């Protein structure tokens, strides 16, 4: 008989359950299978009612983030072989409201992401006839790491500050704000500073650092926030010394 | 209304009438070494503050002459104080090392278009620490 592995999966039906429960499934164990393959097997062969998000299967869409044995993981990049022969526990992303089974409600993140204006802001747009905004490889290198974010929200599930204070802007949104702040083509740092230097912005972060540990794209949101704090502190000091130089 | 909703930040409630929200346990930091290390680092600040107060008291008694300083030393010889100082030393050491290790994450230094390596930034902190400690030791022990 082929080898199998046990999966403990969170089930929650908002119409029927007061609280989530776990359901055990036995799925074939294959060395080349990731947790998402096992979930797809369950949905195809064992229980079609299981709900979860996924799309690309290759770590770029950021849809399939879940808690695997208590750790935030992209299930498409987490192999069953890392856990076998023990059972694997799959839960919805921590700190987010659960809509159904493994599906979380992510409006909160989307709203916060939009708030920090993660796009290039120009004081005055160049006309199309004037050509592109040019950038050297060195200038690209400054922010490239932060631009790798895929909005998978694993960093939010790793952040106890976000768990305890839902108003916290959170790791990914701040890292993406910083990505545009240090982009040589951008001129919107002042606008973003007004939003991010509030208490719920960078100052809520206590530098636990786990967001960076769990990031599947090595974005280092914790670093981005600390660098932003340094900038904000310098700006504050400058405005104190030279109040006439503001704006 | 849950605390989450009371604090704002939610929309679309009509479409998801019964979201399930988990509560964060008071003991969230106990389950994982990484979180525990963070809480210990935060806690170490209290001992750093205590260390500063003791040092200030020491300087104060030193400035008031040899008798006052002898009294200070006498008080510090209490086994309870020695135990407290030993714990304080460990926490201050922990605080310093974790602080230096985190420094390169906040400090981005670019030289010639390249980011200076993390080891170099943390290393320069350690070197400064050693040099200052050695000069203080030389000043006291010579």
Summarize the structure.
The complex is a heterodimer of chains A (247) and B (142). With 247 residues, chain A is of the alpha+beta class.
Quick tags:
heterodimer, A: 247 residues, alpha+beta, Ubiquitin-like (UB roll), Fumarate Reductase Iron-sulfur Protein, Chain B, domain 2, 2 domains, two-stranded antiparallel sheet, 9 helices, B: 142 residues, mainly alpha, 3 helical TM bundles of succinate and fumarate reductases, disordered N terminus
Radius of gyration of chain B: 24 Å
Query: Which pair of chains forms the biggest interface, and how many residues does each contribute?
Result: A-B, 39 and 30 residues
| Total DSSP helices of chain B | 5
Instruction: Kindly name the structural category of chain B.
Output: mainly alpha
Number of domains of chain B: 2
Q: What's the count of strands of chain A? A: 7
CATH superfamily of the largest domain in chain B: Fumarate reductase/succinate dehydrogenase, transmembrane subunit
Strand order of the largest sheet of chain A: 2-1-5-3-4
Distance between the termini of chain A: 72 Å
Sheet with the most strands: spatial strand order of chain B: 1-2
Assembly state here? Answer: heterodimer
Shape of chain A: elongated
Please state the average pLDDT score of chain B. Answer: 87
Q: Quickly count the domains of chain A.
A: 2
- SSE string of chain A, helix = H, strand = E? EEHEEEEEHHHHHHHH
DSSP helix fraction of chain B: 55-70%
